Amino acid sequence: MTLFEKIIAREIPADIVYEDDLVIAFNDINPKAPTHVLIIPKKPITRIAEAEPEDHQVLGHLLLKAREVAGELGLHEKGFRLVFNNGADAGETVPHLHLHILGGREMTWPPG
Ligand code: 5GP
Questions:
Q1: What angle do CA 40, 104, 76 make, to 5 degrees?
Q2: How many A from CA of 99 to the centre of ligand 1?
Q3: Out of 36, 61, 98, 100, which one is annotated catalytic?
Q4: Which residue's C-alpha comes closest to atom 17 of ligand 1?
């Protein structure tokens, strides 16, 4: 069971900001911006590279809920960044698909 499955199962506490049947969103424990939320599918898809065509509904839902959570956190006006780290070179550390919602400060481009 991955760390994030344990958060879904309430075996590890997390500061949950949104939840429904398909996704859950919680504050990152080591925030890289004033607002740093992770939104994840409850289905344990390992990473984007492992997603299947049958996951299109949950992934579409994930993106639209990321939009909604960002709005509720007041990020629509000034902007926010959505990030999937996929695999070792991207710095992925938890093998359960997660979308970072980052905001509250100016971001640089390209990312490091
Ligand atoms: P990745 O580096 O895989 O893209 O992102 C994993 C994220 O999970 C990191 O930003 C890290 O801070 C966060 N994280 C790791 N362990 C925990 C935890 O136990 N609780 C929470 N809320 N976030 C965690």
A1: 70
A2: 11
A3: 98
A4: 29
Q: Give the global pTM.
A: 0.98
Determine if ligand 1 sits within 6 Å of the CB of residue 91.
yes
CATH of 3-103, one of 3.90.1200.10, 3.30.428.10, 1.10.340.30, 3.40.50.720: 3.30.428.10
Q: What is the DSSP letter of 81?
A: E
Cis omega (within 30 of 0) for bond into 110 = yes
**What confidence tens digit (pLDDT) does each residue in 6-63 have?**
999 999 999 999 999 999 999 999 999 999 999 999 999 999 999 999 999 999 999 9
